[in-house]
Design brief:
Largest sheet: 3 strands, antiparallel
Order of helices and strands: HHEHEEH
CATH architecture of the largest domain: 2-Layer Sandwich
Number of helices: 4
Radius of gyration: 28 Å
CATH class of the largest domain: Alpha Beta
Shape: elongated
Helix content: 55-70%
Length: about 150
């Protein structure tokens, strides 16, 4: 069936699928970050740093990896479970550290790297198959030319 499609129709379809994929990724990432299905972490937190559960808070430092010293020495209890922490300031003025899941930006960047890698591999595969098709077409043309030259 693909051999019956014109090249510009296939490129148009591929472009449309790419745009739909990108749109779905943006919508999904927005709803995953803000959606009502967001669950609380299942790990234990420090008992003295729960003001963020009862009060309004602002994020002073976004979610970032704990230092190797904090993880090994267990000096910060929030670094034991996820190895990531964020700094919050509660409405009462207390500054606390809480565990957080892996940074969403890192996961998005890893996914984008994967997508770019797939694109590069796809383009290389296309170029190799195109070059192979050209070589085979040229061989076929030369074979037909030799047969016609023999007849004359």
């Amino acid at each position: 069936m693909l051999e019956n499609c014109q090249r510009h129709h296939m490129l148009l379809g591929l472009g449309a699928l790419t745009m739909v994929t990108i749109l779905v990724l943006f919508v999904e990432s927005r709803y995953a970050a803000e959606g009502p299905r967001r669950r609380e972490p299942q790990y234990v937190i420090e008992d003295n740093s729960t003001c963020w559960r009862n009060e309004k808070y602002t994020i002073v430092q976004e979610c970032h990896p704990c230092s190797e010293f904090d993880i090994v020495s267990r000096s910060l209890g929030v670094c034991i479970h996820t190895h990531y922490k964020e700094l919050l300031r509660c409405q009462s003025g207390e500054i606390v550290t809480r565990s957080c899941d892996r940074v969403a930006l890192i996961e998005q960047m890893n996914f984008l790297k994967f997508e770019v890698l797939c694109l590069v591999i796809g383009l290389l595969s296309y170029l190799v198959s195109y070059a192979r098709d050209r070589i085979l077409s040229r061989r076929n043309y030369m074979r037909i030319e030799r047969q016609l030259n023999r007849v004359q």
